[in-house]
Prior knowledge:
Largest sheet: 15 strands, mixed
Distance between the termini: 46 Å
Helix content: under 10%
Number of helices: 5
Number of domains: 2
Shape: globular
Radius of gyration: 24 Å
Number of strands: 34
CATH class of the largest domain: Mainly Beta
CATH topology of the largest domain: Beta-galactosidase, Chain A, domain 5
Amino acid sequence: MTLITSDISRRALLVGMAAASALGPVRSFAQSPGTSLLDAARALAAAPYLPPAGELPAPFNNLTYDAYRGIRPIEGRAAMLAQGDDFLLDLLPPGLYFPDPVTVERVVDGVLQSQPLTPDLFTFEPRYFSDIPETSPGAGFSGLRLRHPLNRPDVMDEVAVIQGASYFRAIGEAMVYGLSARAVALGTGGVDPEEFPRFTHLRVHEGADGHIRMEALIDSLSLAGYLDMVLTPGADSVMDISVTLLPRVNIDTIGVAPLTSMYLKGPMHGAASDDFRPRVHDSDVLFIENGMGEALWRPIENPRSVETSAFGDENPVSFGLYQTARTYEDFEDTEALYEHRPSAKVSPRGSWGRGAVMLVEIPTGTEFLDNIVAFWRPEEPLAAGGEYRFDYQLAWTKSAPAATIRAPIAQSRSGREHLLPGVRRYVLDFDTDRDDLVPELSLSGGEQDQLSGLTLFPLPDGRGMRVSFLLDPGEAEALELRLLLRDAEGAAASPVWLHRWTPKRDGDV
């Protein structure tokens, strides 16, 4: 985190509620033409907040889901607009979950252009619409979509979408959309209602040399802000991001570099959903490389009540939400293609100081609601009138976490031990053939004798090593488990596996 100055020294659900490859150096780019959006953000922060004006005008008001899908940008007007070398841009209509107007500016041939929204930029499915007006005063675009020849040189694939509050998402080669990112989160997982800062202004520069730059103005009741992003699509699509936050009030519930995902069920607790598929999730692991040199592996859960976890740190190396299951057999879903959904890895640049990586897990009974959020929260609150900048790289990747670890975790599972009522068995599989490693298991919130049966043994056909143990939670309200493999010299050979047990989770039939 950079303190610059101070005068006083669920995808659709969440939007509706609001209505790794190798890392290179951060690139430097020329200032945008026209008025500086950073200066505009500073001016916004110094003024009282003005919420967006009322209801959308026709034909974008009072839409059903199917009606909104029946609005399509016209090629050459609002779709497939050339945006420099090897990039095209689509402008997205307002309506349904996306009522708030977003001003879109494009730099074309070095000239800054602003595109007003008019209905003639779109076609409208006749069964849902009639008497389309010529103008829609007060309406603006809801966001934009970027295209690039990602998988084939003759096909302009979607690579990124920016739409709804401050949400955006991207994919790399051979991926389908999954989890999302945000410019900033406010109050996520807290006792008060969450606040959703939104993009009010997007400025897209001309693509060149395989990358494209976008700027955004952010506004909400509690803060204004500015985002500067450079997207480089590829096998992994990488974003170099700088976010400047300008609080109007003191903020102690900030979420920096937030990632939002979905987890319904998996092998840690299959009873969470009666479903034919063995797994249903966009992400299944929070992985952290902390400033102390540890690698933390935290399986994600679908809890019975909201769970918030804080992983204290200073200057984290990276954190991300990962999809570690990568075969069709993991999911058995011919339509959702969860095995092809990206992981997202945040790598901070510069000093972010002391704080915590936060994980918020929210109960859900459906795969259509995002219920997982991970972000960085600084230890010190952001002060009203201050200016704070966070630089980081965000990689959308299929790469496994911790590729350099000697004994990476392949999977972890749990289930009832049927011959011992109330007892739960855990198994962790490691991608290693070393049988000289020693498992180190501990728990917090209870007594060590609640753990038993700790063993390490090889899996069949050279598939790795398995650790198994039993947990007898007794009357505990919550227990924190920690497991690590060490070598003969006592050095860590695996990530630190972390898991929170709660009795409500084991209450499922």
